[in-house]
Amino acid sequence: MNKKILNIFKKILPLFLGVFLIWYSYSNTTQEDRLNIYNAIKNANYFWVILSVILGFLSHISRALRWNLLLEPIGYQPRFPNNIMAIFVGYLANLGIPRSGEVLRATTLTSYEKVPFQKGFGTIIAERVIDVIMLLSIVLITAILQTEIIADYFAEKNIDYIKLIAIGSVLIVLGIIFLLLIRKAKSGFFLKVKNFVFDLLEGALSIFKMKNKWLFIFYTLCIWVLYIAMFWVIKYSIPETTSLPLNAILASFVAGAFAMTATNGGIGLYPIAVSKILLIYGISETSGDAFGWIMWSSQTLMVVIFGALSFLLLPIYNKNK
Question: What per-residue confidence (pLDDT) applies to 75?
């Protein structure tokens, strides 16, 4: 019973956190602030918002095409409409219950394409491994591009960043030594760490054994370039953000990406995280909030619409097949 209650708590906590953050954001702004944010959103150039949604949709198309490349080596080639609809159904489910989308996505292919659940779910996990590596790569690139801002921040706070770099280097070396030591672990916590790390590496390196590995890499790059592009074009929808440089876009993109994992689809947290990052680059809180809300609401609305349509169309499309 305790385990069941804990599982329920894990599912509803992110949603409650998101709702709380919306309330917190609302209560910490004045009536004038809220009016300014509303006007900024109302007067935004929606050509760029629509373009952002189109780019987001194309990223999901790329993901569906990439998924088929993972399914092909295990003997399955689902029809593309079922692939893309399964992805949208999964994204819609994640808005309600975190991580439920992956299960529903695999179940959808089991129902309509006869792909065994374990095998379909395994390909989704492999996808996640690759995407985690891509996100960490973008985080690293973003950190490199922020060196001047970080140095200025440390100087302002009177922090010796050279020492921090030295400490970081030592920690990396210790991490490598730790991984080498746990290679022989056979039980307990160290075994779990070893399995996680080496499964991550195995999943990433497995793409080089695929028949269409370069096409897989191409689709992966398409997904992430489109993710950043849909974020980039939103800056043109608000006058104050049009001159934002690439490092600011990447920094806010990373903040938004992590916010998406903390609450259901980033509800509540996403606009706050993006706005706080944009403050560092001289963007007013009003415009930053507007940017975050436009970005989050436009992409979420797309998922809701196409996810709902997918729920309706899946049985119709597969009725006589």
Answer: 79
